[in-house]
Design a protein that fits this description.
Blueprint: E1 2-6, E2 9-11, E3 17-18, E4 25-26, E5 32-34, H1 36-52, E6 55-61, H2 67-76, E7 80-84, H3 94-107, E8 113-117, H4 128-136, E9 140-150, E10 153-160, E11 163-169, E12 173-177, H5 190-196, E13 201-204, H6 244-257
Parallel strand pairs: 1-6, 1-8, 6-7, 7-13, 8-12, 9-12
Antiparallel strand pairs: 2-5, 3-4, 9-10, 10-11
Helix pairs in contact: 2-5, 3-4
The structure holds flavin-adenine dinucleotide.
Flavin-adenine dinucleotide binds at residues 6-8, 35, 37-38, 60-62, 90-94, 97, 101, 116-117, 119-120, 122-129, 221, 223-225.
Length: 263
């Protein structure tokens, strides 16, 4: 089977800053990491590769420096990496991003399984995975915590309220993966990083994937962001000292005063 994993480079979440005047994310000088959900999706793909000898290809869309997340994935064991990088992609919303990723996946030929993270920790929309499935005309299973393959059956364990559901699908199918203890994100050794430099890595432009310019970038995006701003700072929490019983009495007193509970 051929597996594609969509990996996104994101700013380290604790470091995200927003320019108060323009409302844009300040990315310069902010450390970047692989989107944590994608790291789990990658690990799931690599375990299937180890078990069944499948081929794993990574696809990422981003600026040239996003190469580092593709390189990380290849050092961990993926066979090939694609970076979609072109000024034509700049400003793309989730629809345009899904369109470009789907065009790239289609160019790769016969794909049996596409894995994406459930969401990116910066954009946080959780729309891209389902968007790619829609653009590829593939069925999708979201919120998966585990994936296995038995012959031509793809078996996904999907998280639902109060438990999980086992969903079987015939390929091709797209799964969005959550973070789960079944997959422990790993980091490569120095030797593995060196060896990965010899693996096939391609940078594709909009023209390379046959993307139509009117569907790309800010102009091709049906969503227009009005404003991005950080949430207002929360008031500092009140701290009480004393025994647990004294603290509880104070909390009850406040809850009554604020009419959260009746006298
Ligand atoms: C009008 C508008 C303009 C924007 N302009 C810019 C801009 O100029 N620069 C910019 O960086 N962002 C921009 N964005 C944000 C960008 O559209 C989103 O980051 C992107 O579409 C993914 O959405 P998300 O972050 O919510 O990911 P989610 O939908 O939450 O991601 C789910 C999963 O999809 C996959 N995925 C998502 N994005 C990518 C990717 N790029 N490559 C590979 N896999 C991916 C990953 O597996 C990820 O875990 C803009 C958004 C809007 C609405």
């Amino acid at each position: 089977m051929n597996i594609v994993v969509c990996v996104k480079q994101v700013p380290d979440s604790t470091e995200v800053k927003i320019n108060p005047e323009t409302g844009h994310l300040i990315r310069a000088g902010v450390p970047s990491i692989i989107n944590p959900y994608d790291h789990f999706a990658l690990q799931a793909a690599l375990e299937l590769k180890k078990k069944h000898d499948f081929k794993v290809t990574l696809v990422s869309m981003g600026p040239p420096q996003a190469k580092s997340v593709v390189q990380l994935g290849m050092a961990l064991g993926a066979d090939e990496g694609i970076l979609l990088s072109d000024m034509a992609f700049a400003g793309s919303d989730t629809w345009s991003t899904s369109y470009a990723l789907a065009r790239a996946i289609r160019k790769l030929g016969k794909i049996d399984l596409v894995l994406a993270g459930m969401q990116a920790i910066d954009g946080d929309t959780a729309q891209t995975g389902p968007g790619v499935a829609q653009q590829l005309g593939m069925p999708q299973v979201t919120f998966c915590e585990h994936v296995d393959v038995d012959g031509r059956r793809i078996i996904a364990r999907k998280l639902i309220d109060g438990g999980y559901e086992i969903v079987e699908a015939r390929p091709p199918v797209l799964l969005t993966m959550i973070m789960h203890k079944d997959y422990v994100p790993r980091y490569p050794s120095f030797l593995a990083v060196n060896a990965s430099l010899k693996k096939p890595f391609h940078v594709w432009s909009a023209a390379d994937i046959g993307a139509e310019p009117q569907f790309l970038g800010l102009k091709g995006s049906p969503t227009q962001v009005d404003k991005i701003y950080p949430p207002p700072q929360r008031e500092k929490a009140a701290m009480f000292t004393g025994s647990g019983q004294e603290g509880m009495a104070k909390i009850l007193q406040i809850m009554k005063a604020e009419h959260f509970i009746e006298e």
